[in-house]
């Protein structure tokens, strides 16, 4: 290769006519807001079958040029803060106003357990039956990287199907919050009222990536506590963050009661204010472009590793290598060099 | 390939006579406890030069059969808990007793900044000058995965050089704690005394991986607070953990004063008790074998990605792909497929 980078020819991926036809059909139906096409498209995206993967890739390729004007909202909250109740009340309210709401769940534990215990539709009973809403549970049985790819692609599909708001919610375990923040425009952290100046163990890293803290359960006996908690976090956010780019007052903390549907309209107004500001100033698009590059890199890594592991010569020796390393007979580095050699990559500089 | 896994031939990595000769020499000097050979070996491990990497690989290959009887101790603590003072007092005490102590620092921020602001030798003045001690700052300018590999290999070198205790310390930002726990036998979390029942924002995940919490600064005005903090965490550990494998009372919380050198002997005794128990019951070796498999997988991923990015056909189009994705002209998935095609892997099922 003598090319200098920008002038190098970019090879085209292979084309499968059958996959293209299916993708064409789904894309057309998505453009009309067909929810069954949306569900079918997400199923393709989550599938590991080769023909499904080709069709999913063809579909996502088509959607690159589709409108992408939804607000992508990340939402995190540990169990017990009333996340489902919040999404239900918040979502139904907006859906009643004629907005189309999609909720995509990201549960890293379902990667291990093969699915969450309670179905997402059970958790959000009214929203799941609302004609303007679409709820999709977390893809199961995948690595965190796999969940990321599927969720990113599902967001594209929801946008292509005309949804105005795509909520990506996560339970906030491990890296899932960063992952969700990396694929959304605005990131909300939902908290429960906490007594005194208790810190609820909120990780500093999460405070730094969130755009708004929503203290839920500001009702009944907890109302005053919720307001105090809100004030505490408003102070903490103020101390932690110095972002010249955002409008005055952001990141901010608000208190709501999902149960009494109090403060939900204000939460939505704040989201719209921040979103409008960022759109007008090109911040949203800049952020999305950066996210696309991150996605590109993650996509390359994930595909490369999958192809590697599926290469027959690698797959043939992999169990023996793991066993030999696990029994202490082969050093991990030597086994790694052998695995790479089976893939056709030799030399210690691997 | 028709092989069935265990019967497949395992190819040998290539041999470079010059690298082998250097590795041979270093391995012989390490076996005599030569500290300059240790420093030189770690420098090879941290180098990105191809000949250095070959020599490092040859060295690590040789050390696989070397004695590995050091206690590998992971230690985490956020800035301000007195981590350096603790390691200094604890290390000097043990070194004075004739034990050989190596301290390897893992600072994920140095991956970004190209090195920590204060040198580790300044932080631990007496220990760094002690004839029985060896201190190595965090490798800089590498990814977290790169830091993991280098630190794992540095542990092997320290053990080959006859060190009895290898402390791997980290500031506990992001994933570095899990990484350190994944390469050590025993994991300690160092904390400062906290007023009331304040939680110090200690992440639940860290509580779950640590074998002992050490509350430092149990001296002067803070002595009573430290004892209360210790009791709080002992309770929390008790609630969180149910490990039938460890001896009664573990994981446990103790209070020490690194400044007044109080409780350090007890800390060491607890570490030895746990280590002896785990050795006798095969738990340590089982854990190390599992860690070796994890290391093997990480090693494969890191090498594969490095080889991929360094492949001329990939490197030639990579900047153009990132730019095109960043400008929204190419979908991340399409760009990923193109990058993989440049590596010789085609088809949408990539």
Automatic annotation (TrEMBL), chains A, B:
Which UniProt keywords are given for this protein, alphabetically ordered?
Kinase, Transferase
Q: Which SUPFAM superfamilies match?
A: P-loop containing nucleoside triphosphate hydrolases
Q: Which GO terms describe its molecular function?
A: GTP binding; GTPase activity; kinase activity
- Is the keyword Ribosomal protein in the record? no
Q: Which residues cross the membrane?
A: none
Asked if Signal is a keyword of the record, the answer is: no
| One GO cellular component term noted in the UniProt record for this chain | cytoplasm
* Domain of life of the organism encoding this protein: Bacteria
Q: Which Pfam families does the entry link to?
A: MeaB (PF03308)
- What's this protein's family per the entry? Belongs to the SIMIBI class G3E GTPase family. ArgK/MeaB subfamily.
Name of the protein: LAO/AO transport system kinase
């Amino acid at each position: 290769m003598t090319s200098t980078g920008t002038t190098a020819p970019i090879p085209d991926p292979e084309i499968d006519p059958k996959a293209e036809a299916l993708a064409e059909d789904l894309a057309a139906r998505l453009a009309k807001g067909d929810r069954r096409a949306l569900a079918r498209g997400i199923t393709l995206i989550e599938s590991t079958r080769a023909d499904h993967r080709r069709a999913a890739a063809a579909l996502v390729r088509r959607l690159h040029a589709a409108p992408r004007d939804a607000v992508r909202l990340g939402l995190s909250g540990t169990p017990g803060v009333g996340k489902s109740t919040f999404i239900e009340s918040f979502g139904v309210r907006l859906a009643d106003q004629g907005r189309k709401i999609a909720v995509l769940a990201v549960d890293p534990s379902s990667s291990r357990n093969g699915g969450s215990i309670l179905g997402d539709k059970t958790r959000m009973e009214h929203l799941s039956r609302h004609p303007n809403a679409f709820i999709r549970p977390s893809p199961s049985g995948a690595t965190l990287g796999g969940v990321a790819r599927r969720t990113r692609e599902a967001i594209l599909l929801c946008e292509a199907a005309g949804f105005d708001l795509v909520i990506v919610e996560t339970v906030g375990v491990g890296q899932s919050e960063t992952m969700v923040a990396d694929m959304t425009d605005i990131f909300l952290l939902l908290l429960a009222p906490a007594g005194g100046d208790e810190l609820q163990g909120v990780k500093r890293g999460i405070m730094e990536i969130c755009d708004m803290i929503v203290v839920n359960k500001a009702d009944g006996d907890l109302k005053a506590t919720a307001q105090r908690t809100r004030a505490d976090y408003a102070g903490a956010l103020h101390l932690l963050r110095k972002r010249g780019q955002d409008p005055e007052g952001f990141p901010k903390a608000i208190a709501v009661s999902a149960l009494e549907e109090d403060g939900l309209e204000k939460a939505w107004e704040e989201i719209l204010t921040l979103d409008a500001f960022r759109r007008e100033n090109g911040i949203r698009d800049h952020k999305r472009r950066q996210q696309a590059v991150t996605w590109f890199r993650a996509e390359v890594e994930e595909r490369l590793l999958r192809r590697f592991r599926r290469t027959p010569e690698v797959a043939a020796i992999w169990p023996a290598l793991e066993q030999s390393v696990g029994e202490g007979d082969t050093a991990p580095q030597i086994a790694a060099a052998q695995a790479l050699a089976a893939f056709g990559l030799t030399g210690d500089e691997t």
